[in-house]
Amino acid sequence: MSTYKFLYFALPALGELSRNILKYSKAQWTEINPKWPEEKPNQPFGRLPVLHETKPNGEKFTLAESQVIERYLAHKYGLYPKDASPETVALIEMYRDQFSDVLTPHVDFTIYKIPEKQATFNQRIEYLVQKHEEILKNNGSNGHYVGDIITYADIAAYTFLKLFRDAGHGDAFTEEKAPGLNRVISTVAKEFEQ
Ligand SMILES: N[C@@H](CCC(=O)N[C@@H](CS)C(=O)NCC(=O)O)C(=O)O
């Protein structure tokens, strides 16, 4: 089994979904919060997150780019349906990437303190909730985006909605407004608690 070092800041932002995939998959991993900016020149592209893998035969592999790291781990840990077609993989990744449209303004106003980004966040989360409720309804309102198993898309929704809720922005997706998304959250949460 591979072991991993996951390098990111002690913040819930671009590294959060990879952290949750590592936790959910019960991978053997440790987190490192590098000294910044001292460690910046030592990163592949000067930014975080970065994943360092050591394979069972001792071979090393390093990856940067948050969404690439997530997908690498999601493939390794079975978070796409078995034998998924390229179309199914693409749909799962499309559902996940939707959350970046909301995460970006969220990071801008919570971490970079740009107050006017809050309005963009509010407008984008409202739109996402409306669209994703339809997608989840079309999959049978069963707590999953695709089929009846937990995929990368489900863990993405759980991760980012929890992140927004923990930051005090859960009003946009209450049970009443977003029953489908709340079902995804509770389905994934059950597995996390095991
Ligand atoms: N496209 C990159 C962006 C990474 C990024 O913006 N990382 C920020 C933290 S969220 C960073 O390293 N900031 C410190 C810096 O740029 O010096 C990704 O998705 O991983």
Structure write-up:
- This protein is α+β, with helices and mostly antiparallel strands and 194 residues long.
- It has two domains: 3-76, 3-Layer(aba) Sandwich (Glutaredoxin), CATH 3.40.30.10; 86-193, Glutathione S-transferase Yfyf (Class Pi), Chain A, domain 2 (Up-down Bundle).
- Helix content is 50%, strand content 10%.
- It has six helices and four strands.
- The protein has helices at 16-24, 66-76, 86-110, 117-138, 152-166, 179-193, and strands spanning 3-7, 28-32, 50-54, 60-64.
- Strand 3 and strand 4 (60-64) form a beta hairpin.
- Helix 1 runs parallel beside helix 2, helix 3 (86-110) runs antiparallel to helix 4 and helix 3 (86-110) packs parallel to helix 5.
- The protein is globular.
- The chain binds glutathione.
- One of its GO terms (molecular function) is glutathione transferase activity.
- It comes from Mycoemilia scoparia.
Small molecules bound in the structure, each named once: glutathione
CATH fold naming of the largest domain:
Glutathione S-transferase Yfyf (Class Pi), Chain A, domain 2
Q: Tell me the total number of β-strands.
A: 4
Could you say how many structural domains there are in total?
Answer: 2
Q: Label the structural class.
A: alpha+beta
Taken as a percent bin, the fraction of beta residues is 5-15%
Could you report the average pLDDT, rounded to the nearest whole number? 97
Work out the helix count. Answer: 6
Task: Using the 3D structure, state the CATH architecture of the largest domain.
Answer: Up-down Bundle
Q: Note the run of SSEs as H and E.
A: EHEEEHHHHH
The oligomerization state is single chain
Specify the overall morphology: globular
**Amino- and carboxy-terminal Cα gap:** 21 Å
CATH class of the largest domain: Mainly Alpha
Helix content estimate = 40-55%
Placed side by side, the strands forming the largest sheet appear as 2-1-3-4
